[in-house]
Specification:
The chain contains one helix and six strands; from the N terminus they run βββββαβ. It has 86 residues and is α+β, with helices and mostly antiparallel strands. The strands form two sheets. Strands 1, 2, 5 and 6 form a four-stranded antiparallel beta sheet that branches. A two-stranded antiparallel ribbon has the order 3-4. The termini are close together.
C-alpha cells in the first residue's frame, strides 16, 4: 500500500520597484531586495522613501527626490508542493 502526502507552502511578499531609464527594477538595500509581508507596509515604505528623499533634497544631500509615479509595489506569490510516496 502506498501513501501520497502532499504539502503546499504558499506565501505572498511585496516588493518595491523603481522606474529606471531602462524600465522597472527592484529597489534594493545592498545586494538583497527588501520584502514586506503586507501591501500596507510596502505602501508605507514608499511614503517614507518619498519623504526622506524630499528632506535630503531640502538640505542639499540629493539633487532629486523620489516621486510617487516612479515607485510601485509588486506582489510575488510562491507556492511549493512536495509529494512523498511511502
Amino acid at each position: 500500500m502506498s501513501m501520497i502526502e502532499k504539502y503546499t507552502d504558499r506565501y505572498t511578499m511585496y516588493y518595491i520597484q523603481h522606474k529606471f531609464i531602462y524600465g522597472w527594477d527592484f529597489l534594493s538595500e545592498g545586494l538583497e531586495n527588501e520584502s514586506f509581508d503586507t501591501l500596507a507596509q510596502a505602501k508605507k515604505e514608499i511614503e517614507d522613501l518619498i519623504e526622506t528623499t524630499e528632506e535630503a533634497v531640502r538640505v542639499g544631500h540629493m539633487e532629486d527626490a523620489f516621486t510617487a509615479d516612479e515607485l510601485r509595489v509588486v506582489k510575488v506569490t510562491t507556492s511549493k508542493t512536495t509529494e512523498v510516496v511511502a
